[in-house]
Design a protein that fits this description.
Order of helices and strands: HHHEEH
Strand order of the largest sheet: 1-2
Shape: elongated
Strand content: 5-15%
Number of domains: 2
Length: 107
């Protein structure tokens, strides 16, 4: 695999940030910038892999009952319901996957 110089790496990082702020889909943004969408997705995945994990503040309802028959988790506008409390590692993987899901898509 070929190495990318610092200037090119910074350019790619700027493009990823500009796409997020643009409100355009990745395909629309790439068409306007003359960038192949597959290359853009690859850059974004590599950049996200370099970044430190982001944490989300969690607030528990005061009357939460962990023995309840259902467990609900709200991630933005998405509501996930489970018949019981899921395995913590599995739940962490689900949250990480949802976090990396394209921002232009919704549940």
């Amino acid at each position: 695999m070929r190495s990318v110089n610092r200037k090119e790496s910074e350019r790619r990082e700027r493009l990823v940030e500009q796409q997020r702020a643009s409100g355009l889909s990745v395909v629309e943004f790439c068409e306007k910038r003359g960038v192949h969408p597959r290359a853009f997705y690859l850059w974004r995945a590599k950049l996200e892999g370099r970044q430190k994990p982001m944490f989300q503040e969690v607030t528990l309802e005061p009357d939460i009952d962990l023995g309840a028959t259902t467990f609900e988790l709200r991630l933005g506008s998405c509501l996930l319901s489970f018949p019981s409390l899921p395995d913590p590692q599995w739940l962490a993987n689900v949250i990480a996957a949802c976090d990396s899901f394209d921002k232009e898509r919704s549940c």
